Amino acid sequence: MRFKDGGALLNTMKIGWIVSGVIMILVTVPAGMVGYSGSGSLDSDVPACDSGILGLNVCDRVVMLEDGVNIPETAATLLTADISVDWGSQNVWIAIVPASDEEHCSSGNDGYLVCDRDSLTYLAGGPYSGGTFDWVLEGGDIRFVAGNSMEASSESVTIEYTYNARLSPLLGSILALVGLVQILIGWRF
Question: The domain containing residue 134 runs over which residues?
């Protein structure tokens, strides 16, 4: 398509820069301020301390999942995520620990390790969490652990979680600045 008038091409380019800048800002602001939220729940049966896991009393031991979660450092830099976990029991506890803490554990069965409760580094939750914890997303390898203080009976708990993820302030600022520069280029073009 040829323009007979060079001014029409110039106006089209100006409008393109301005529209793309406005779209960049309109997408960045809600993603950076509001983000994406969700929630869910799962049911879990937690055995009593004297349940016979490897013949140990697990009131002072914890069970760690062998499979961990790797959160890339870049994800933690680009996103801000807040996670809240609530299981409503004072006897049962859940925690997040660094995957490197598996060195304090011995092999268990069925995808778990058995660890000494006092040798772990708790990033969130733990024996004194009171049935709930909040965690801000950080990069690195993490594992989930669970323990309890019930001597004679098992307990069934419902673990409820909510999360809110949004762009980090750094990324949101950069994208909004790019949108503003696009608008200025279109305005001054």
Answer: 36-165
pTM of the model: 0.71
Q: What is the pLDDT of residues 63-78, one digit of tens each?
A: 888 888 888 888 777 8
Buried b (16+ CB within 10 A) or exposed e, 57-66: ebbebbbbee
What span, in angstroms and rounded, lies between the C-alpha atoms of 162 and 110? 28
- The CATH number given to whatever domain includes residue 94 is 2.60.120
113 found inside a domain: yes
Number of structural domains in the chain: 1
Q: Which residues contact 139 (CB under 8 A, 6 or more apart)?
A: 71, 72, 73, 74, 75, 76, 77
